[in-house]
Amino acid sequence: MKGLSFFGKAIFFLNSIFAILLVLGYALPYIPPHIFPRLSVLSLLLPVLLLINAIFLIYWILRGKRQLFLSAFVLIIGIGHISSLYHFGNSVEVASEDEVTLMSYNVRSFNIHGWSKQENIGDRIIEFIAKKDPDIVCLQEYYPKYALSKEQYPYQYKKMSAVSKNFGQIIYSKFPIVATGALDFKNTGNNVIYADVVINNDTIRVYNVHFQSLRVSPKFDTFNEEGSKRLLGRMGESFKRQEEQVMMFLESEQNAPYPVIVAGDFNNSSTSYMYRKVKGKKQDAYEKVGSGTGRSFTFDFIPLRIDFILADPKFEILQFKNYDVNLSDHYPIETSFNKNFKF
Predict the structure, then answer these.
(1) What's this model's pTM, rounded to 2 decimal places?
(2) For the segment 246-275, what is each residue's pLDDT rounded down to a tens digit?
(3) Which of 191, 198, 239, 308 could form a disulfide with 33 if both were Cys (CB 3.0 to 4.6 A apart)?
(4) What class is the 99-338 domain?
């Protein structure tokens, strides 16, 4: 570090720490959370780490210092991760009668606990979904007081959680549902449910997933207000439970008799171990035809994408949308696929 002032050396020391953290973040999709549970939080902070390293890179470029190569290197090796965090869309236009639309939305119990001071949120959420009129709807944190009509969605499957009869998940469908089921995670309000849906004489399985919640406030101040050690410990335990739940899901998926679509709230990012395991060889609808950051969760200035729609490669994904609807701590996501599939 010859030629650097004391201040320059201090900056490069910080640069080195954030470069190491970023590389660790790159490795996390391949490390089961039970090995380093607290370290798994880096998967959620990857956008911030990328931005910080980009700032360091610009700083060294402006100073004309060779230290720029450190951040340049860690950013280059993470090109694949960057593409999963920001995407340029490439949607396919087809006649509306040839597509099936599927929406996923964590509705945060329709605000029955009063987290938002907005009025009539439950009714407004139902009105929004009914107006968009998707063919299949997967809701997480569902509360039975608010429901879409039987006339619009004649086929429905709901499953309340293991800890409350007033909290669960539901799948609405305009197409016939011929079988249903749930994985029934123990001692948690989270779950995975599924419905086998018949479309054009072919059957597909739709999973509505809600993996273990991290129980983190959607405010960055949380990391200051709560002891960081206690917060990271709690999040680490949640990551370990997610891993267990994912193993249960993969066993169910392996035995599924039909091609699957997985939709819902993963409570983790696209750079996590559990996302990589659940995705497998499936298509991520956002990565296939989406655009922008794909933000699905409110967390101050970080555009987190923790809600996903993944589909068997046999499906032709046509469109993906994020709706900027501020009625929950999550944003609704929707995809469409060509219904003229043959398996």
Answers:
(1) 0.92
(2) 999 999 999 999 999 999 999 999 999 999
(3) 239
(4) alpha beta
